[in-house]
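Recall the central idea of this unit: under ordinary conditions, the amino acid sequence of a chain determines the structure it adopts. In this exercise we apply that idea directly, starting from the sequence alone.
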Amino acid sequence: MKVMCIFDWILSVRDFIMESPEDPFIMEKESVAEDVVMSSPEVSRQTSRDSTKTTSPLTVSSGIMTKRGPIVEEVEVPFELKLNVSDTQFIVVEDSSTWDTNAVILKSTAILNFRPKAKDKILTCTLQSLEVFSCSLTAEEETAQSIIDPLTIHIDLNANPLPKHKLSSSAGLLEASQVHQNNLVLEITFNVMNIRLSYIDMKMFLAILNSIPEQALKATQHDKPTDKAYPADKISSLYDMGFSMEDCKKALDLKKMNLMEAAVWLTENAVPEERGQSQEGGLHITGMEIKSSSVCVCLIDDCGDSDVPLAEISFNSIQFSQQFLPRQEGSGSFILMGDYYNRKLSGWEPFLEQWKCRCEWKQYYQNMEKKTAIQINAQEVLNLNITSTLLELYNQTKVTWSEDYYKQIVPANSQNHPHQASRTAVSCQRRRVPFVPFMLSNETGCTLWFTTVTTTPRSGRRKGTKDDHYIKASEWRKVESGEKMPFFFHNKEKNRHEKTHELSINQLVVKVDGWLKLSNVSVDRVGVYFRHAEPDVSQAKGLAGLTYSSKHDPSIQKPARIVFDVKQEGKARKLITVRSALIVRNELDSSIDLKMATHSGLEGKFNIMEIPANGTLPLPLPYVSSMLYVRPSDWPVKYCNQPIQWQHVGLAGEVKERIMKCDSSEGNGVYRFCVSVKRENYPEQLLTEDSSLILPGHTVSIRPPVIIRNLLPIELRYYIKDTQICGTVKTGEKAYLHAADPQQAMELGLNLENFPACKELVVPPVTTGPQYHKVKIRLYDTKKRLLELLIKIIFRKGGSVSIHVTAPYWLVNKSGLPLVFRQDFSQQDAAGQYEEHELARSVTPLLFCYAEKDLPNLCTMRVGKSVQGPDSVPVWCKRFSLESGTGMRRLNVVPKTGNRPDWVYNIGIGVHQGKGLYADTNIVTFAPLYEIDNQSSHRLAIAQRHLAQSETMKLDTCLIALPQCKLPFHWPRLDLDQLLCVNLLDVGSSSWSGGFRIDKTDSFHINIRDDQNVSHLLKVEIVMEGPTYFIVFGDAGEVPPPIRIDNWAEIPVEYFQSDTTEQKLKAFVQPRVQLPYAWDEPMLSHSITLRVKGGTSATYNMDKLEEGKQLCYPNFIYLRASATFPRRSTQDSPHTELVLEVVQDQYIKFCKKEIGNRNQLWRMTSGGMLEHEGSISPRDPHNRSSYPSGKSMVLDIDDIAPRPGRIVPLTLRKRDERRKATQTWKFTEDGRLCCVDGAMCVQTLGGGECLRDSAVAVVGPGPPSGRSVPAHMKIDRQRLLPGSGCLAVRTVMDGPIRVLQITDVSQGSVAEVTKNYQDWVVCEEDKVAEIENKSTEKKSSLEICMSLKDGLGLSLVNYSPEELVYISLQNISLDYISNPNYMTVDVAVANVQVDNQLFTATRPVLLYITPTPRRDIPENTPALHVVAQKIPNSKWNAEIYKHLIVNMKKLSIQVEEELLWKLLQFCGFGSTDHLDEKVTEGEDPRKALAAATSVKTKRYYFGLLKIHTSRVNLSMLTASKLSADLKALKRDMSLPLVRFEDAKVDLDPFIKSHLFETIVFLQKEIRFHYTEELKSQAAKILGSVDFLGNPLGLFNDVTEGISGLINDGNVGGLLKNVTHGVSNSAAKVVGSLSDGLGTLNMDKNYQDRREQLRTGAQSSGGHILAGVKGFGNGLFGAVTSIFTQPYDGFKEDGIEGLVTGIGKGVIGTVTKPVVGVLDLASGAANAIRDTSSSSSRISPPPLRLPRCCHGAGMLLPPYSQNDAKSQKLLHDLNKKNLEEFFIAVEQLRREDRLMSLITSKQVYFLLGGEADSGNIILKVPHKELFQCLVVEIKGRYYLELVRVQTSDSDQQRVPQIRCDKQTVAERVSQQINYAHNLYEEQQHTLTSTEAEDT
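Accordingly, the structure predicted from this sequence is:
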């Protein structure tokens, strides 16, 4: 059965099934239901609920229960449901509109068994052969690609699982009910699940997921249009109250969608549903268990041109259990492993080694908060291997995947389907292009036949030994010469890349026509392999009866060497090129014809091949031994007159060169070229053999005889004196001089533009040996000024010459001004400068040199004369150096007339040395000191402050920066303040911003106000790149403002920056408004003044976070007649608003309210008196004491005492204690103003109708009790200003924003909001509204605790492969808490150690925690502690951290130079070729700048950032010799290293608070801080240098000893310390001396021997031994060097070498014994030092031995302790010969512990496993071994090692070694044969020789 999962169809079916049929009796029901409103639904609900009751599988019968569980009523027949579904496919398609689409298919056979009444397994379900695969629907079989391999899953629902809870005392009947409710566990088990996910699959899943919502949407759109009418939020609100959906809709219909009224109607008329019970009949699953032996996820990279595995992560022994009821908790355990696929070696390498982990989790509620806690524990080390291959793979995949993902518009296989380019969906790929992993290219010049073979490495001899007739003819595939053929070893299967795990070796068997079949060649690994082919004399026809050619004679066919060059092409395909071993490389600028003439004596038997310029050509096999002649294709010359010889170059790596010439066909010209023959690393042959039998293995390079390379930034013309040779060379190009003869002296001349004259330079003829000269050539310009250029002449052996032309300085003018240069104190300008340089800036760099030798090497410059016109004089600036660093100079122009100040231009100067070939040139860049970069969306006007403030300033006269434009800036007036102001041109009539400095790196906002006084903020970044300060303006919207003023009070508050005086900079912040602000004047003090109108003002310093001074304002009241005030304030109210007013100082009337009339204002005192404001003078609201309590007038009655029932007028009197009864008032609840006794109240004279303007106010009797208050008696108070009259102000941080927060003292609610401010919760804009919402929703928090007992291990492995370092972080604990308000992380690492894993390491530990001396109490603090708290933020592009604190303990670091360079190489330094220095207009530092300053870049805010490093003990050990690649890296990095030990460096902590910067800037800051710290400690490092004998170390030792003597009375300690210090110093000085003398004798072998002796010594005994041996070595060297040196010299360089050798020998005789004596002394001193060093100085032992990096198939194996030990044993045996590496070890016999140690070079049999050469009983090198067999003699098993039989050797006896068991013997024999095969392959693999230095 196939089920197509098309979602709109499924939804339609669901709707059809769910639809309830129409009720035929609906009419009758409605008539009945008129009077009983809601009874029928209630009844129907009731019945339906009863009917469901019986279906529960666990129905408990009524009656008494026992603890045995439910009593099942046996009345019914037990119900059982069995369901078999076989071979069902569920198909999900990517695009349901077309048939030819990608689909994902789930296929399975299911058996389901449901027994609801069963005691244990209620439901069992087995899914057999469940698989998921993707395919194209039209071709399912061919395109099927497995996603989940077929597996069987068992699912059980178990009602009676094994009990897990403890047996507790009986809880009686209660527990019986719990038992059945507790347990219903879903158990899922399966064995191995393989999941394969490829890039295309993931894209397809995305496409399917994207299409599902569309399908679902289509389905629901034509569904029920009626629902659209009801607003979802209203329906859900009512539904959540518990009413049914129908009732809710009905209520909304009746009440016309009014939510409140509908809710009221429902509560009165409808009955809520009982929802909780609806699930009563369902199955309550209480838990779940999953068990599996393995889940393996394989990622496949099939993006673009590849289809190879990427990585594989497997979870083994998975056990997972989750409990749902009564509480959510669970646990799980698994073993994790991870591998990645090494494409070059075609095999898997581990990146995550086996790691067992256990985790537990639970969910619970606490204070309405849902909490999830996860705990992860692991006892084992989590070992990660980071290899260079892995990093390369990661970067490559990241690039290709992201490129492909983002260019979805063009289909990936558009070559097949061009018409699909219009589809822009993610899934642009319709059908996968089959990927062919191998391609064979035939460049042998003959027809070639091949077939494929797969073998396994352990299978004894090669399978390829079978004869031709075993391989069926149909298996041979034919490739014509020059053709390429793709092929593969395995046909494509559905289970992709399953075979990659088998250790199989893919091999090719090749036969070339005319030669016999070759032995198999493995093609999995990238490399160059070769085979020797014997001539096929018997069969001249070749294989398929193909004859060679009539000219070919099989009898003279020679043996051949055939090369297989395996390269990785693209990302994963392997290209195998089959060719001969003789390559001709054309390094000329034109193509050449190569003539190959065979020896047969017949004329005309030659072949001509063309080789393009810079091309290479392998010679065809039949022509390998022919005579070779060359001529350039497009020159009229003949072939060269002598054949090119290569047979005479016999030693591997040797290079020989000679000059050859072709004569001209017309006349006397000669075309010369140089032939360089290099012997590659093929096995050497004796040159005495017949030259025709010598097999080629050479590269023949055809080069020009003389090359001139122009390394100047301008075009160069060259000529050779007295010849016709001349020409021009463009910048950076080479000229090839074929007519020149380097064997004669040449006079070379050069001309440049404006430099017509030159003093020619003599290039001497080529002598023997490569040489190297640096000379200068003199050029003169038209004004006879001198320019010296540098010439580098490089002679190669055999004749070619390279001439590089460079200049000492390039002066690059990017300042935008014409500049003129000269040497300081010189009387004339530098050469090459003319009138035009005065007028405009030169685009090409100016070549400069110090022409006058007697003047100082300094330069000076001035502006060109045209800059300020003829009435001014430019002045030369202060001199500057052109060597290094950055600086700036002021260029003045003095006016001739008038008294205006000088014009001044600030120019930045940046000097950097060229790289690569340009290393001799300093490139000096002159740029404006300031450059303005407007990244904002506004048009900006920019001016110096004094101009901006002047009255006459016009906007059109200042500098205008359009959006995205960059401008240089110079101060118009240097004598006035250098502050910059900015104005916005696109905001109407705005005023200038405040002035700000631009001469230091900074980041801030500026504030520009428009005429409405609205602030517009701009972000300003000032960054220094090179010599220039870039001032970058950006829009402020992307980033939070620096300051915000939050006014939560009820009244507006005026604010301004404290020191500003202008009225226009003052503004009001309205109530309930949050106002972003930036300083109006960045240069003034950072404080804000707030003022309340009519109240107090105060100043607040924004740099301090504190509670500020309170603001007060007087808050008077009006006594108003409330009946005259409208209830709701409308604009045009006819009401006259009447209040009590004092008229003529004592009469009190009702008058119209007037704002600002003091006679209407009153104050109620705490005693209840009503003071009148108008009768006293205004007072200071701050000063409480200034209230004149005695003088104030209060409201009183105009009578001696109140008379009940009589009306008395009101008046004012002075305060009087005796009149308290009539001067005290109160406002009653019913809205009257009464005397204190409450009987009399204030009212209008004459009753209600007299309530109008200027009615008299009197006191009279109140209304009768029980009656409502008439209008004329209603009097209440109205405040003049809202709020309490007192405002609290505080400065707080809201993330990166400083907030000045104003609140009313009486405001409880908002004070609540802000009490979180100390804890600084980020305040969003509408905070107050949000608070209410947030309290209702449930919060959730996550807590993770991770404890790794053994910690984390990182092993770094480079390409070689060799392990560089092992980084170990021990006992890690991590706590992570995340909730809606914040996220905290706390990581503690108990110990940190980094081991140097190089085999040559003398200090095996690179970094460790400095041990504390014994007398100190051991600290319990972690070695590394990181604490961070982050606050969520959605509004800005920023990460907000409350704090990030990193603490480290004292560290000791011992760096070895070799390791340092290897680590830098591992990190990717030195790999880029930076030979070409391009200096063009476009190239500038702005790209780097953009990254640092873009407003779009994410910023990081830290409330506190603290990196605390304690004291570091630094040691540096320099290396005496480095490999060539490391030397090149050292040269590139140009870091001079000096040897020192134990420099105690104290680094101050890096502490910054309230940082808000980009990550680039932060890194820069931290780097700068620590560089400066190190520089400040330079004296300590210098004091620890070896050649001074580490004086600081001696001083520290003595002081430590003395302090020990004083504190502890420790005399021994003093002696020990002094001894250690003195011996250490002695050893250092003597060692440095002996090193210096050792290099004098120039004997490399002697130095190597010394180095080996010294590095071998680790203990104090070892040091003495090394000293003695060194002494012996010196004496022996003295005696022998007079003989050995001349002999070696003669062998290398002939007679010349002999002469130098004699000189070296004489020097050696003198120096070597002295060095020996010094070595002895230094060894003794070292020994004394080691024995006297205290425990706190000894570094800990390394954590593990260096790993063995060569596994099966040369892949990196997982770390094995055993292999590492055996590898160490091997190094002890072979004296650290790193060429030989370990393969396997095995114990053969138990009684005498005989072991076999198998290496890449030989097999050792040794006793006892000790590294002593006396224990070796047999050693068989692989080159003598033929094979290893297992023989059985009399029931005992022996290994038999068969040696290779040579013609002259007699029949040797075959060694036999007895083994304990047959299995051991067979295993060892397999391993020996494997190693032997590996050795054979290695012998037939070409290793690259060192490339020549160019």
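The first helix runs from residue 7 to 18.
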